[in-house]
Amino acid sequence: MTRWAWFALGWVMVGLGIIGAILPVMPTTIFLILAAGCFSRSSPRFEAWLLEHRWMGPPIRRWRENRAIPTKAKVLAIGSMVGGFVVLLLADPPLWVALLCGAFLAACATFVGTRPAQ
Q1: Same domain, 11 and 62
Q2: Same domain? 90 vs 110
Q3: Per-residue pLDDT tens for 78-110?
Q4: Which residue range is the domain that position 59 belongs to?
Q5: Boundary residue ending a domain (66, 86, 106)
Q6: What is the DSSP letter of 27?
Q7: 37-86, pLDDT tens digit by residue?
Q8: Could you give the CA distance from residue 21 to residue 1 in angstroms, rounded to a whole number?
Q9: Residue 28 binned pLDDT confidence (cut-offs 50, 70, 90)
Q10: Residues 61 and 75 occupy one common structural domain
C-alpha cells in the first residue's frame, strides 16, 4: 500500500472512531488504534497528534504499551455487544445471519475479555 493510501485509511479510521464515540453499539478505541497504525506508516505527525490527544491518546498508548483494556471498558464493550445482538434478534433475522453475527460477536467478546485489565 502506498503512503497516501495508509494516510487516507487512517482518516477513515479516525472518522469511524468518532462515530463510535457517539453511537453506543459501535466501538471507538479499536478504530483509533487502527488509525494510529495507519498513521505510523504514513504520517508521524498525525500519529503523534493521536497519541498526544487528550481523550483519544490514553487508550491508544495503553494498548501499545501493555495490550491492556481497562475493566470498565471491557464491561462496556461486551455489554454493548450483547445489547447489539439482542437488538438484532428482535429484528428477526434469518437464522444464518443471527448465527454468523453471534459467532463474530462471541469471538470479539472473547478477545476483549482475555486482554489484560488495567
Answers
A1: yes
A2: yes
A3: 988 899 899 999 999 999 999 999 999 999 899
A4: 3-66
A5: 66
A6: -
A7: 999 999 999 999 999 999 889 989 988 999 888 898 889 889 888 998 99
A8: 28
A9: confident
A10: no
C-alpha cell at 14: 479516525
Average pLDDT over all residues of the chain: 91
Query: What is the C-alpha separation between 33 and 53, in angstroms, rounded?
Result: 13
How far is the C-alpha of 86 from the C-alpha of 81, rounded, in Å? 9
- Structural domains counted in the chain: 2
DSSP state of 116: P
Say yes or no: 7 and 53 in one domain. Answer: yes
What is the sign of the dihedral through the CA atoms of 29, 65, 70 and 83?
A: positive
SS3 of 117, please?
strand
Q: Which residue has the cell 491508544?
A: 60
